[in-house]
Design goal:
Number of strands: 19
Strand content: 15-25%
Largest sheet: 11 strands, mixed
CATH topology: Rossmann fold
Structural class: alpha/beta
CATH architecture: 3-Layer(aba) Sandwich
Oligomer: single chain
Number of domains: 1
Radius of gyration: 22 Å
Shape: globular
Strand order of the largest sheet: 4-5-7-9-8-12-13-16-17-18-19
CATH superfamily: Alpha/Beta hydrolase fold, catalytic domain
CATH class: Alpha Beta
């Protein structure tokens, strides 16, 4: 399986500086948090604070440990420059001092206003990506700020730095899911500090896409994250993802370490591992199986769908969905249709090609999309609705006129396509024909972030998922709700899961 080359963009790794207030540009917005004073910048009619450390740099002895508290500073910290990305370079080198948060708020916001808060967790297969925006979409929250919402985007450890288990490290305490530990630490930082920016620590929505969407569902299941958010948005969240068993993760970690010259599982081995450049342990696996949640028994206690079905998810409203061509991430071959057993092929044709068009590539694309995203969304929506929570489920199928003539666009709305529509900020550069849907999607998202109910956006009614198992489709005709959406296809995929042949793999994304 391959991932699109558009997902290899590298964010600039620029460290934030602490400067005397007099050395900074006059007139920038200010805030004082528990660590110290900040001065940000006015941008596009809103206020931004970039590169705020929410945890101590995970360097040296802090590498592969739960995040420690960020140190305070004296004077006023320049918060006009982005912090370093956790994404490794093409050579495999990491900038490990990368645990930063960025805050975008309405102009003139003051401490104590209790504005709603949206915490964004970026995607990228737990291996690449940036809190400042990636994959063609800026996620700085400018439009949300104009809607009266504070957006906090956070980085977290990626690849070997963030998702790595080794016997020597696990003897020390919690291990493996360091990236998820970072996300919990970021939410605790938001809880402690967001009021200083004008936010309400008791009206926090977490959201993310792909690996970020998986993270949202994992956080909903993680006991350590309880009470740190009140609503959740999962975009392309791979709801049937199974975590890597700890035994497998330990074996892989030990093999990687031994290839880099570190043997043993004692304290000396842990110290030696922390002295290695992370590039000395290159991946041998494909991108889609490199990093991700590990079944550690604390932060990750089960598969996602299993945890939701058992009623273990946080009791909060959920907005969840995916796109019509999620298969763009995997590029399935048309031959997969011909390879089906005869009885299954007849069922597939009835469900996926009822009009007899015979487009096997589209059928293969739709099968993969239903497997990884659309049917898992239904399973999660059912479980969270059964738990008594409001669930709003969507299906994004809109393809811009500019993209319709391209091979990518012919398949439908690809993986990540919805992100720019949800944020819909001035940096997105929408064509005039695309603006109405962008404004609609952003309005629904903003309404949900504020109230837990997207239907207050003022557009076509968005019913809850239950009882009609309704998906809101965002397509060429604008927002349109559909009860029992794609039922034959989703029922077919669900039957495969129950038969043991159609669940998502242990790796994303």
């Amino acid at each position: 399986m391959s991932i699109r080359t558009t997902m290899t963009a590298v964010a600039l790794a620029i460290g934030a500086l602490t400067l005397p207030a007099a050395a900074m540009a006059q007139g920038g917005p200010t805030a004082t948090i528990k660590q110290g004073a900040l001065q940000g910048a006015a941008v596009e009619g809103v206020e931004e604070f970039w590169g705020i450390p929410y945890a101590a740099p995970p360097l040296g002895d802090l590498r592969w440990k739960p995040p420690a508290a960020a140190k305070p500073w004296t004077g006023t910290r320049d918060a006009t420059v982005a912090g370093a990305s956790c994404q490794p370079s093409q050579k495999g080198d990491y900038t490990e001092d990368c645990l930063f948060a960025n805050v975008t708020r309405p102009a003139g916001a003051k401490a104590g206003q209790k504005l709603p808060v949206y915490v964004w967790i970026h995607g990228g297969g737990f291996t690449i990506g940036s809190a400042t925006g990636a994959f063609g979409a800026q996620t700085d929250g400018i439009q949300f700020a104009k809607d009266g919402i504070i957006t906090v985007s956070v980085s977290y450890r990626l690849g070997r730095a963030g998702w790595f288990a080794h016997p020597a490290l696990c003897k020390e305490g919690p291990c493996g899911n360091y990236g998820l530990m970072d996300q919990v630490a970021a939410l605790k930082w938001v809880k402690a500090n967001i009021a200083s920016f004008g936010g309400d620590p008791n009206n926090v929505t977490i959201g993310g896409e792909s690996a970020g969407g998986i993270s949202v569902l994992e956080l909903m299941l993680a006991p350590d994250a309880r009470g740190l958010f009140q609503k959740a948005i999962g975009e392309s969240s791979f709801g049937r993802l199974e975590p890597t068993p700890m035994a497998d993760a330990l074996a892989r970690g030990k093999t990687a370490a031994e290839k880099a010259g570190v043997t043993g599982d004692d304290a000396a081995a842990a110290a030696a591992l922390r002295k290695l450049p992370l590039s000395s342990m290159p991946y041998t696996e494909p991108f889609t199986s490199r990093a991700g949640p590990i079944l550690d028994g604390r932060y990750v206690q089960s598969g996602i769908a299993e945890g939701f079905a058992a009623g273990k998810a946080a009791k909060v409203p959920l907005l969840i969905g995916g796109n019509s061509y999620e298969a763009s991430l995997f590029r399935p071959a048309a031959a997969t249709v011909d390879a089906l057993p005869a009885d299954q092929k007849a069922q597939v044709m009835a469900a996926f090609d009822p009009k007899g068009a015979g487009d096997k590539q589209q059928i293969a694309n739709d099968m993969a999309t239903r497997q990884y995203i659309t049917e898992p969304d239904r399973a999660i929506s059912r479980a969270q609705s059964k738990a008594g929570q409001a669930v709003y489920t969507y299906y994004f199928s809109y393809v811009t006129p500019a993209a319709r003539a391209t091979p990518q666009g012919k398949g439908g709305a690809g993986h990540t396509a919805e992100i720019k529509f949800a944020f819909a900020g001035p940096k997105q550069q929408f064509a005039d024909v695309d603006l109405p849907l962008a404004k609609a999607v952003n309005a629904y998202w903003a309404a949900f972030i504020k109230t837990g109910n997207p239907d207050s956006a003022g557009g076509p009614t968005w019913p809850k998922f239950a009882p009609g198992e309704t998906y809101m489709e965002f397509g060429a005709d604008g927002p349109q709700p559909h009860e029992h959406f794609l039922k034959a296809q989703l029922d077919w995929q669900e039957a495969r899961v129950k038969a043991g042949g159609g669940a998502s793999p242990t790796t994303p994304k």
